[in-house]
């Protein structure tokens, strides 16, 4: 039997290197030798170094997001589970509020951690009532559960303002408008006089104060002459009585001489001018006094001195004489009631009512000196007196009262037992006032009437 010797390893290497596989077997020997670096026909083997690849051209696959492996720089990697809406995003980051991706549990995510822009800092959609003011959404306020009717912030996140028809915390009223002329003002206060707003149909004016003296009274009534309030710079006075005989005329001008109205207690006359010599002087003093004897006859019951004065005034008024008239009579009882005590002591003449205006005396002193310039024989109607000539007087020509009880019991009796001193209208001596005779009070006689 023949023994086979083992092939040395290095021979195997040479054989392998010399072989070229072309899919059908080994190539020719020369090509194999050339490829292996061996020289054909040389008995000594040539050693060759195996060929290796260049590291710069080697093909290597690096780590990527989505490969399921959390590589350096990645927070997570769920492979196919990565998504913008998943806990691990398509960027291999943990989903978080503010990353701009709507992750699990988020209703929104606008890429910031700011509130008031529709998406809160916790990625919850913002809406009216959540306590966050969304200015971009048109919210003016948001008190959360504090929103609502009657609150400072309404149920639609608008500030409660006057005129919105929602009665706010600081409003007394709110009628849904800003009309200043109704019962609720533009400041949502109940309309009252003095608030500066004219309430239509209720107030004539409203100047915002409660002061009288300007164009609008404190009652919100327009100031007018006769309202009793003096309007500064417009009226001189205002006594609200319309009486032109007092210190304030019905034109709200202060009474003065020459205004045509007799200022009682201050003026004797006022003929609407300041001329002298026309009966009323420039100081509104009568330049004359008128006198008449009554056309009527009376018994001694004259209802006292006051009643007799009223009879004279009535006769003068019935003939439109004007002025104030008193009877030339004295009553002995009580305080001095004589003409000297009751009458104006005129500085001007005393005249009759005839067309000639006959003068009977120059002044009071001349009237009471015991004689007259002419007898008092003209009636209140200007006609010459006739009939009974005697008059009731109980008065001396001096104007003083007669001493003794001769006054028909104070000119209050028509008894034939009572007596009354008489004068004579036809005389110009002292007998015109006192004839030193008397008569029963049941008799009828005339009376003298003097203008004051």
Automatic annotation (TrEMBL):
Biased composition (Low complexity): 36-60
Region span, Disordered: 31-64
Keyword Repeat: yes
UniProt keyword Signal, yes or no: yes
Keyword annotations of the record: Disulfide bond, Repeat, Signal
NCBIfam families in alphabetical order: myxo_disulf_rpt (TIGR02232)
Protein's recorded name: DUF4215 domain-containing protein
Lineage: Bacteria, Pseudomonadati, Myxococcota, Polyangia, Nannocystales
């Amino acid at each position: 039997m023949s023994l086979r010797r083992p092939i040395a390893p290095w021979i195997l290497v040479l054989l392998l290197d010399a072989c070229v596989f072309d899919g059908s077997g080994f190539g020719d020997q020369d090509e194999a030798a050339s490829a292996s670096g061996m020289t054909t026909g040389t008995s000594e083997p040539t050693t060759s170094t195996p060929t290796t690849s260049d590291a710069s051209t080697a093909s290597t696959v690096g780590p990527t997001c989505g490969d399921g492996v959390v590589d350096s720089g990645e927070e997570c990697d769920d492979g196919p589970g990565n998504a913008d809406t998943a806990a691990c995003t398509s960027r291999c980051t943990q989903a978080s509020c503010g990353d701009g991706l709507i992750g699990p549990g988020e209703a929104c995510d606008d890429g910031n951690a700011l509130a008031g822009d529709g998406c809160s800092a916790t990625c919850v959609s913002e809406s009216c009532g959540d306590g966050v003011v969304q200015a971009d959404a048109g919210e003016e306020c948001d008190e959360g559960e504090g929103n609502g009717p009657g609150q400072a912030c309404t149920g639609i996140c608008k500030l409660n303002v006057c005129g919105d028809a929602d009665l706010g915390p600081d409003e007394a009223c709110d009628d849904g408008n800003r009309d200043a002329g109704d019962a609720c003002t533009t400041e949502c206060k109940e309309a009252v006089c003095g608030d500066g707003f004219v309430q239509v149909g209720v107030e004539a004016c409203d100047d915002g104060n409660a002061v009288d003296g300007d164009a609008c009274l404190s009652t919100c009534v327009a100031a007018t002459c006769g309202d009793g309030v003096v309007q500064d710079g417009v009226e001189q006075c205002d006594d609200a009585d319309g009486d032109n005989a007092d210190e304030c005329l019905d034109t709200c001008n202060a009474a003065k001489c020459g205004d045509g109205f007799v200022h009682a207690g201050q003026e004797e006359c006022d003929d609407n001018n300041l001329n002298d010599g026309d009966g009323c002087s420039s100081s509104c003093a009568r330049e004359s006094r008128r006198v008449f004897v009554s056309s009527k006859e009376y018994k001694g019951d004259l209802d006292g001195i006051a009643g007799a004065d009223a009879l004279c005034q009535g006769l003068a008024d019935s003939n439109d004489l004007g002025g104030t008239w008193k009877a030339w009579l004295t009553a002995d009882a009580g305080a001095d009631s004589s003409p000297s005590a009751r009458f104006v002591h005129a500085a001007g003449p005393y005249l009759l009512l005839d067309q000639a205006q006959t003068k009977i005396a120059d002044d009071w002193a001349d009237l009471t000196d015991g004689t007259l310039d002419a007898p008092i024989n003209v009636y209140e109607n200007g006609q010459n007196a006739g009939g009974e000539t005697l008059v009731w007087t109980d008065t001396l020509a001096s104007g003083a009262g007669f001493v003794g009880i001769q006054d028909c019991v104070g000119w209050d009796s028509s008894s034939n037992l009572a007596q009354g001193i008489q004068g004579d209208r036809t005389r110009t001596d002292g007998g015109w006032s006192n004839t030193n005779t008397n008569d029963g009070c049941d008799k009828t006689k005339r009376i003298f009437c003097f203008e004051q």
